[in-house]
Design a protein that fits this description.
It is a single chain. With 257 residues, this protein is α+β, with helices and mostly antiparallel strands. Helix content is 47%, strand content 20%. The chain has ten helices and nine strands. The longest helix is centred in the C-terminal third of the chain and has 21 residues.
């Protein structure tokens, strides 16, 4: 059962939030089909409680500071592993390949969570294990979405050494790869860190639009082929987008911003 007044408050906040420059009383009443008298009372209460602000010059209502405080409290209680765990579990059930959650710590990636597939041939990784960002799909997915200043600082401070014959150690080539990741939304490596292991990764973003980490599908190279990858890619992208959404990320807001 929907409580009418509570539903109207929700509609008001959602409508105001959708208007970058705010919205007038009249436009809000017309948009929501709420009688102006009832709307005035609700707006007055929301403004008094600082969920909305009112600009007397433009006559427009905008979101208030109280919502930011509540958002901050919500975000501070979020645990990326807790959010990602059921989504990664669902992804593994779909694709039946090992999948990990990783974040950047200093110059390396750290694996925080893993869901294993049922196949006998798979990649063994320990929670807490660290790996070089530039030689892993999970690391490249994160690096690609750092600022230009952060990327420059990373390359200036990290020795680019080879782990296999496939490891890319040329900064210019790595930068081109990172641009490809930004374009496609996916990072790939084929035996760059360990022989016989390939991977596909997608970035995860937070409320502020910053990259928070990445999820990686790790595949024995014998199964790393175009057909299998095409099956994995849309499902991996969907899982990463769902985690990002639950962390408060709004892609439309980022594009418009």
């Amino acid at each position: 059962m929907v409580v009418k007044s509570a539903d109207r408050v929700t509609q008001i906040l959602e409508t105001v939030a959708s208007q970058e420059k705010g919205i007038t009383h009249g436009a809000l009443a017309k948009s929501l089909d709420i009688p102006k008298g009832s709307l005035s009372l609700l707006l007055s209460n929301l403004t008094y409680r600082e969920y909305l602000t009112f600009d007397p010059l433009s006559k427009r209502y905008m979101l208030g500071s109280r919502l930011l405080i509540l958002t901050g409290r919500y975000l501070s209680n979020l645990d990326i592993v807790r959010v990602a765990r059921p989504i990664i579990r669902t992804l593994v059930a779909e694709i039946n390949e090992d999948t990990e959650l990783a974040v950047m710590k200093g110059s390396k990636v750290v694996f925080l969570h893993k869901e294993e597939c049922s196949k006998p041939l798979k990649y063994s990784i320990e929670i807490g294990q660290r790996a070089p960002a530039y030689a892993t799909a999970c690391g490249k997915a994160i690096l690609a979405h750092l600022s230009e200043e952060e990327i420059t600082a990373y390359f200036a401070s990290v020795p680019l050494t080879s782990f296999t014959g496939n490891t890319v150690t040329d900064p210019d080539m790595l930068r081109r790869q990172l641009q490809d990741v930004r374009t496609s939304g996916l990072a790939y490596v084929c035996e760059e860190f360990q022989h016989g292991i390939s991977a596909i990764a997608a970035p995860v973003f937070n409320f502020y639009g910053n990259v928070e980490g990445s999820i990686t599908v790790t595949v024995p190279s014998i199964r790393f082929n175009a057909e299998h990858n095409r099956f994995i890619e849309p499902r991996l992208l969907r899982a990463a987008a769902t985690i990002s959404q639950q962390l408060g990320f709004d892609p439309d807001k980022q594009e418009n911003g």
